[in-house]
Write a structure and sequence with these properties.
Belongs to the phosphoenolpyruvate carboxykinase (ATP) family. It is built from 13 helices and 31 strands. By secondary structure, it is an alpha/beta fold.
């Protein structure tokens, strides 16, 4: 077997059972990975220097093809209502078949960290058969110093083979696509999908499983901090398409990370060393920091259409998918944190993409309301973020990240509430979805409005303003905010048909109440009392 690059020879691929490989390319950096990807016709070079690749039929995650090994250690720890299961025997067969499929192939290996806090990080080794996948995961996770590689010993191993096709009868899955994790052996197998996001979310799933036991809250959120001496940090919870990446990229604040973080007794820390930003309809004017990364060598653009002659990206072209992306190292953002760490947050923002257009652009939540909305996780799945999704669809994704939560939501909810109470954190619910009507009749909330409201929330001025009580949801909504049209703050005023608004709001309230029945036995009475009401109450 030929080896290229630096690694710990005492802990090579044989340790995981990968033998008879043609070659392993170890810890290659961007220039070499570009060469390999282009030589193999895996992608194209865009004007400005980004590498552009397509992912075939899988242009988003495949949550229904994700499985956890059900054994003695996980039987009473995993939220099985939310996680598919396979037996240890099925996983063993799958692993053997992965090993057989890899024989004779050239693989790429990256030795990386998940977690900026050394006390809570995981050493993740990722084997891929595609060079561009190796660059993607190198961009997204934390890269060790070069002199650390000779002593690196992996804890978690990911084997990513898009050309492998699972056999449902043999492997206990439902299709030719499989993402299987064995928490006991600390192995993740990804087959049948070239969507690179499966790798990063597998590391996130692993940390979501192990960190609560250490008293650390893992979170599907972005984070930033003020640039002054206080360093006040803020967390932004939300699913794909709600604005986590966009809103945390604020030139007036320091970016900690855009997607996955932990909150320990020492503060918050990024799980990653890069960002994975949506690029559909990306604008240089609206999002200059993210746009600039698409013109840099080292960035990976996923399913972005480029001009055949000029190689200029067309970010308005959704012919491949709405879920176009770019993956780049965190230091491509000028104001990004070099450490990936910050102190305890002063504000938490829960982002929702309201497809019905009846929720206000911002509301202030009590501790009980925060717990209610965290467990509810209302948003709309945005077209393209999952396979087969072509239009927005209202959904409830508990903890704003149900697909990545192996444990019961109450584990994460109770951790969050304890930390919020201990550190006196203000919580805000922000709607980046629709206003003036739902999907098809209304319009998307203007980003300038969202940014202005967030600025007021984070600088402390919004908490001092006058509030009204929302007649359906009961939370506090500001009456007036400088720089924001008063009408926008009151959703009913943006609708032409007031009766249609009332009907739609009542329907959404009913959905909230029906969804929360599964959590009622896990929360205190004040959280149950925070649910919206079927009939409007006086404001």
């Amino acid at each position: 077997m030929k080896t290229i690059g630096e690694f710990n020879a005492a802990h090579g691929p044989e340790a995981i059972g990968l033998t008879d490989l043609a070659a392993v390319h170890w810890n290659l950096e961007a220039p070499r990975l570009y060469e390999e990807a282009l030589r193999r016709s895996e992608g194209q070079l865009a004007r400005g220097g980004a590498l552009v690749a397509t992912t075939g039929s899988h242009t988003g995650r495949s949550p229904k093809d994700k499985y956890v090994v059900r054994d003695a250690s996980t039987e009473n720890e995993i939220w099985w209502d939310n996680n598919g299961s396979i037996t240890p025997e099925q996983f063993a067969t799958l692993l053997d078949d992965f090993r057989a499929h890899a024989r004779g192939k050239e693989l790429f290996a990256q030795d990386l960290y998940g977690g900026a806090d050394p006390a809570h990080r995981v050493r993740a080794r990722v084997y891929t058969e595609l060079a561009w996948h190796s660059l993607f995961i190198r961009n997204l996770l934390i890269r060790p110093e070069r002199d650390e590689l000779s002593q690196y010993v992996p804890e978690l191993t990911i084997i990513d083979l898009p050309s492998f096709q699972a056999d449902p009868a043999r492997h206990g899955c439902r299709s030719k696509t499989v993402i299987a994790i064995d928490f006991s052996q600390k192995i993740v197998l990804i087959g049948g999908s070239a969507y690179a996001g499966e790798m990063k979310k597998s590391v996130f799933t692993y940390l979501n499983y192990v960190l609560p036991g250490a008293g650390v809250m893992p979170m599907h959120c972005s984070a930033n901090a003020s640039l002054d001496q206080t360093g006040d940090s803020a967390l932004f919870f939300g699913l794909s398409g709600t604005g986590k990446t966009t809103l945390s990229n604020d030139s007036s604040r320091q970016l900690i990370g855009d997607d996955e973080h932990g909150w320990s007794r020492d503060g918050i820390f990024n799980f990653e060393g890069g960002c994975y930003a949506k690029t559909i309809r990306l604008s240089r004017n609206a999002e200059p920091e993210i746009y600039a990364t698409t013109e840099r060598f080292g960035t990976v653009m996923e399913n972005v259409v480029i001009d055949l002659l000029t190689r200029v990206p067309d970010f308005d072209d959704a012919s491949l998918t709405e879920n176009t992306r770019c993956a780049y190292p965190l230091d491509f953002i000028a104001n990004a944190s070099a450490t990936g760490r910050a102190g305890h947050p002063k504000n938490i923002v829960m982002l929702t993409c309201d497809a019905f257009g009846v929720m206000p652009p911002i509301a202030k939540l009590t501790g009980a309301e925060a717990m209610y909305h965290f467990l509810s996780g209302y948003t709309a799945k945005v077209a393209g973020t999952e396979r087969g999704l072509t239009a927005p669809e209202a959904t409830f994704s508990t903890c704003f990240g149900a697909p990545f939560m192996p444990r019961h939501p109450s584990v994460y909810g109770n951790l969050l509430r304890q930390l919020m109470a201990e550190h006196g954190v203000d919580c805000w619910l922000v709607n980046t979805g629709w206003t003036g009507g739902g999907v098809g009749t209304g319009r998307r909330m203007p980003i300038r409005v969202t940014r202005r409201l967030l600025s007021a929330a984070l600088d402390g001025s919004l908490a001092q303003t006058e509030f009204r009580r929302d007649p359906y949801f009961g939370f506090s909504v500001p009456v007036e905010v400088p720089g924001v049209e008063t009408q926008v703050l009151s959703p009913v005023e943006t609708w032409t048909n007031k009766a249609a608004f009332a009907e739609t709001a009542t329907r959404l309230v009913t959905m909230f109440r029906e969804n929360f029945t599964r959590f009622e036995s896990h929360v205190d009475a004040d959280v149950r009392a925070a649910e919206p009401v079927a009939a409007p109450i006086a404001a």
